[in-house]
Design brief:
two-stranded antiparallel sheet, Rossmann fold, globular, 244 residues, seven-stranded mixed β-sheet
Length: 244
């Protein structure tokens, strides 16, 4: 009996020692680093114009990034001039035509009121044109926007939404004839010679890299010629103009 008691006492001592070691290890182990909330480099600032960049699966990357490139640039003094946000039907990741995966800042339900809406394109616009949620979002935002911009096939969404009746518009090179047939209320310009056109609050371009033209022209309208020139120098556009 005495022997059994000694065995039990020894076993309890070993267990107690092991528990103490575990507690000490737990106490000394560094706490897991808290997940830090992702902070936007250019935070949303109340009072600044809101530039909304519409996105959806298959969107052409440059038609989103061109506007972001131009409107996110600060003044020469480093002052933020615009809130630039991306919007999609949901916050699920979207995949661009070029295979880039992106997640929008806002979906249609929580998108703030926009001062400018950029409507981009995809090589196949059928899905977007037949998506009532996208069409209604454009209609709703256009009630408040100071400018609504389409690039490339985004003109089809402008036509479908019916917001630019009797307005001049241009689309991708080779797409104007069908655009005029589909949406006779638009004044479709000759895309073989017209790269960019504006009519009131509606601006449009051929898209792809020509999206920089609509963005630069609009940033000049909303700021100054001097700021546009600063943005162009920031982007080294003179190097592209001289490049062969």
């Amino acid at each position: 009996m005495k022997y059994l008691s000694l065995v039990l006492l020894a076993a309890l001592s070993i267990i107690g020692c092991q528990n103490n070691q575990k507690e000490e290890a737990t106490a000394s182990a560094p706490a897991k680093e808290e997940v830090k909330e992702r902070k936007h480099i250019k935070p949303f600032k109340e009072g600044l114009p809101v530039i909304g960049l519409l996105m959806y699966d298959g969107v052409l990357t440059t038609e989103v990034t061109a506007a972001a490139d131009v409107f996110s640039k600060p003044t020469e003094d480093g002052e933020q001039l615009f809130n630039v946000i991306t919007i999609a039907e949901s916050k699920d990741p979207i995949v661009t035509e070029e295979g880039l995966t992106m997640v929008a800042d806002h979906d249609f339900s929580d998108c703030p009121q926009l001062d400018v809406l950029f409507v981009p394109s995809a090589y196949d616009m059928y899905t977007q044109v037949h998506n009532e949620n996208i069409v209604q979002f454009i209609q709703k935002q256009n009630e408040h926007t100071k400018y609504t911009v389409s690039n490339c096939g985004g003109a089809q969404l402008i036509g479908k939404s019916g917001i630019a009746e009797g307005k001049k518009i241009v689309t991708w090179i080779g797409g104007g004839k069908q655009l005029q047939i589909d949406y006779p209320q638009l004044l479709v310009q000759d895309d073989s010679v017209v790269t960019y056109v504006e009519d009131g609050k509606f601006l449009s371009s051929n898209g792809n890299l020509a999206s920089y033209i609509s963005s630069l022209n609009l940033v000049e309208k909303m700021t100054s010629k001097e700021h546009r020139e600063f943005v162009e120098s920031y982007l080294y556009l003179d190097r592209l103009q001289d490049w062969k």
